[in-house]
Amino acid sequence: MPWKEQQLVEIRESFVRAFFSQRASMADLCREYGIARKTGYKWTQRFIDGGVPNLVDRSRAAHHHPSAVAPATVEALLALRRRYPTWGPKKLEALLRREQPELEVPARSTISALLKRHGLVTERTPRRRTPASTQPLAAATAPNVVWCTDFKGKFKVSRRYCHPLTISDASSRFLIRCEPLEGERLEASKRVFEAAFREYGLPLRMRSDNGTPFASTAIGGLSRLSVWWIKQGITPERIEPGHPEQNGRHERMHRTLKAGVASPPRSEWDEQKAALDAFRLEFNEVRPHEALAQRTPASVYQPSARRFTGHDVDPEYPDHFDVRRVRKNGSFYVSYGHVGVGTVLAYECVGMEPIDDGCWHLWFGPIFLGHVRELGRGRFDFTKNQAGRG
Length: 390
Hints:
The chain is an alpha+beta fold. It is built from eleven helices and 13 strands. The protein has four domains: 8-55; 71-117; 146-300, Nucleotidyltransferase, domain 5, CATH 3.30.420; 322-384, no CATH class. It has helices spanning 8-20, 26-33, 37-50, 71-83, 89-99, 108-117, 186-200, 224-231, 248-262, 269-285, 297-300, and strands spanning 146-151, 155-157, 160-169, 175-181, 205-208, 235-238, 322-325, 331-334, 337-340, 349-356, 359-364, 367-376, 379-384. The longest helix has 17 residues, at 269-285.
């Protein structure tokens, strides 16, 4: 039988003694023990050289490490790190060369490994990020095709932080809302959008960044707010993280807003709200816009023909889709099993698009959620589409 890790020494001793008893040839014994003849001769010679103690595996560690860091250098680096606990390998290397030029300084990667080995580096907890959106951004060819939304940072007004929530039409640059809120929370934000929809109708798409409450780390980057948008017939689209230029028209308006009414802010909340309202009126009806041939946004914008009813409507799916209602715990039943999609879609209808026997594409409205594959006996494999689009 092949040699195992357990009782290796005993097995090797048994092999060697069987060989010296001449009960079988080396070839026959090696076949019996499941080893190569080279291995058999090696352990036989080891036994001859040192007996049973010599049948133990020898360490393969190198006796000499020519590239090892000198102890004096290690101590110097550790001392510097303790003196400056937030410094990384690059700064420690530069300071060591300056303070002790006689020492041979190792590579930065070696310095980093030394710090970790001596417990001087705290590993960062991976940050959960909103899944990237690969959904192409729509061209704002006419009013109400794309609305843009964001918070204009925050600043203190009368000992409270003010977070202006802004909504604009990407085509006409019309500033739909500029509302001061005390936080970037769902309930207050949703009320602002409801008021905007009642006054100006519904856009086809809503463009935002990846922050709350517009997006989340849930499946497809969906949040409670974006789920509500979808149930109003609006497709959410998110810019890439770190690319505010993809919402450049809205960001440019923010620059003008900051210069006009937020730098410095007003001393009282009512005054700040009045200043934001006045800014919105001037921006829409007085200020000529170069991209509009010096016309005002109000002269170009028209409200949407898609009216807001206030009713949440489940997304519609093609007839060949199998529609399932998600339970409170974020899962839905399929063929005596269940698939989990997360509580962000609790009580919502998802559509299963059959693509093969036992395989489906899963959608929530226009948002592709992932691939579902039946494994048998009520078990399913769900591969989430973290990009939010198929």
